[in-house]
Amino acid sequence: MKRILVIVKRDIKSGLRDFLVVYLMLAPILLALILRLFVGGMTASPLRVAVLDDGSAIVSELSRLTHVETFSTREALVERVMRIDDVFGVVVTPEGHELIAHGNEMPGTDIVLRNVLRRLQAGEAVLPVSVGVRDINYGMSPLKLQGGLLLIIFTTVLGGMLILLNLIEEKMSNTISAMNVSPASKGEFIIGKGLLGFATPIVGSTMAVYILGFRDFDIAMFVVSLVSLASISLVVGFLIGVTNDEPISGIAAMKGVYVPVLASVLGAMFLAERWHFVLYWSPFYWGYLSMNAILLGEATWRTIIVNSSIILAITAAVFAALRPRIVRGLR
Amino acid sequence: MKKTWSLFLQDIRLSLQGLYFYMEIIIAVVFVAVMLFVVPDSFSRTETRHVYLELPAPLRSVVVGELEASGATIVLANSLAELEQSMQKDRMSSGLVVSQDGAWLRLEVVLQGHESEQTRALLQATVEGAMLEGVPGLTGRTVTTVLVPNAPRLSDRDSLIPVYLTINVALMGLFIIAAYIFLDKEEGVIRALAVSPLSTGQYLVSKMLLMLFMGLVNSVVVVALLRGGLANYPWLIALVVASNLFGSALGLLIASYFNSMVQAMEVLYTAMIVLMFASYSYLMPSFSPWWVRILPTYSMLFAFREVLFENGNVNLMLIAIVQLAVLGMLAFALAHARYKRTITV
User: Fold this and answer.
1) Do the Cβ atoms of A131 and B109 come within 8 Å?
2) A142–B114: do the CB atoms touch at under 8 Å?
């Protein structure tokens, strides 16, 4: 234990000296802040409209419903519509409105605007239907939830990536050979080396989740799930770190790892539930399910323990299968 | 130039002995296979709408028919409570309650609750406007002017190609070039170069050319297999050159502030994620706030879309190429100035 702590202490010391620990903490926080800004923008209207600034009521009427940009001439308005994003032009005509489209907008968006213009043309007239909007009081944006989940999973993977790069650098500077003649065993070395890349993403992810505004979740369940998720990143990081002698091949291998990580997370998000069995092999899938339930406030200890046990079982199986290779690589 | 070329050829020979080049090819082939055999040509964007009808039977079937014609997946609920429970189970769904208000229909759209006031007002106006269609005397006339009739559109599947090209081709150098520099530093190659007739600039350019070589191979393989003769290859190559050199120069600049790959990793990783925020605006073009529009990847993604057409928007491609080339040169000049001072240390 003492020797493990010495290795951790040495890693923290060198990590603080070259700001590694600071970066590990800062990256998820910075990304959470950007994500928050991004999600904030997404709550605005999904429709953007360019109109002439000629004092007509259309500017204020449309501003209530859409994002409006004003232009002094028709040429400037047309130039705006022709730019790469989806912005429609609206010009008031004696008969009603002219809708100016580029022609490559997402299908269906022009129909929404036509309906809006039709509604504005009706003005105060009594409509043949009454329409109301209400909600079921669920304030969490799906974008914030999914963005937060992706951020958590990528932060833990990043922890593994840093372990592998750290190991490769140690190998290149021959400090691993020095470790072989030190009193620390290989197991102590592995734990000691892994703790920094293991613990800092946990702290970073927790802070990121708070920054994103998640409050009503069970922190104990969150930490248990995060620890189990970080364990697979740790094993992957070690495996790649010890089997590669230079950072380029390490990054190449890690890039290969990102494919199943992305596939399992995106699959869990978008695949119909009857297809989820194809993702059962992936610990990131189980981690995603746990985190999703926790942030939604719907998790139970039973679910968390089952999912975390599956993650740890897969991690243990991978580690057991590859242990000889890891130990050989540490020589 | 000759010295840079020799060094570049040597770098290619060395990279062919390593894992990275082959990993890029494998990822490209896997991407093509997934696109061809897994991703459908058109994504079904059907929204699930839970509907509760407080209506007499003859009217119910008429309303159901109308709602199904809208393209949404309609799930009928037997009560208001059942509708809300179903919506709680599927947080991406919405609801609709249809009842009679005297002689008129009353529609109540039920949302989850995270939607802004503006979105709610837009939704209400849209539904009211849709119900006004065909009602004489109440509305004026809306004429549509399409500036580019028959503008080409990519299938949903092919729309993903620019995202791949941006991540895996344009920004390939962001990580890898830094890894190459740190590896050379660690192995003493840079010290050896310091006593050779090669300048720092030539050394850096050779590394950027290596990234470009890999990027060109990767992009041409992917685009040829997925778009065949439908793409504009001269523009594709020009854009890959500009974007890949920009990515590599940015990687060089970021790496110049660090002593090891581990230190640089976090900043490179963050830069990559920030740059890729533009992909959301690319896939949802109505979301284009100024801070996304100023990202170089924003115009890059749309330019990659245009090169996938035989006759894409030349202005758009040209502006993106010039913009990326200028930014790339600026980043390279800054990185070069820094490496000239630090690379041999």
Assistant:
1) yes
2) yes
